[in-house]
Amino acid sequence: MSSHVAGLMATFLSAALVLTAAVTLAVGYRVIIGPTTPDRVVALDVIATNVVAIALLYAMFTGQGFFLDVSFVLAIIGFISTVTVARYVTEGDIIE
User: Fold this and answer.
1) A Pfam family matched by this chain, by name (predicted)?
2) Which residues, in sequence order, are CB contacts of 43 under 8 Å at separation 6+?
3) What is the pLDDT of residues 6-56, one digit of tens each?
4) Which segments of 1-96 does DSSP mark as H helices, in order?
5) Three-state secondary-structure class, residue 26
6) 4, 14, 59, 66 - which has most CB atoms within 10 Å?
């Protein structure tokens, strides 16, 4: 019974990893095409979020806690970069 649940969980995590990677590639198309700068910023934010999700899913899949730290740092960097770019787009300057 336990091995059946573990196998089902591994299948679910593998499917989630593939789906998240596919969505990240699809959003990469939006970064390249645009058409506006805010579209590209939102697409980059989605990519950052998906990379964090991939790191978390991989941590769950492999059972290695190191990837939790990696995902935490990536989330912080993604948040800071999104706030910085949003401030630049709205006000034209990052530091007053």
Assistant:
1) MrpF_PhaF
2) 27, 28, 30, 31
3) 788 889 899 999 999 999 999 999 889 878 888 888 888 899 999 999 999
4) 2-33, 37-62, 66-91
5) helix
6) 59
Angle ∠(17,22,35) on CA atoms, nearest 5: 140
CB 1 within 8 A of CB 17: no
Radius of gyration (C-alpha) of the chain in whole angstroms: 17
Residue with tokens 């969980």: 9
Q: Which two tokens stand for residue 45?
A: 């934010």
Cα–Cα distance between 42 and 27 in angstroms, integer?
9
Residue whose pair of structure tokens reads 């059972």 in the numeric block:
63
ω into 35 cis (within 30 of 0)? yes
Query: What are the pLDDT digits (tens) for 57-82?
Result: 999 888 888 889 999 999 999 889 88
- Measured between alpha carbons, how far apart are the two ends of the chain, in Å? 61
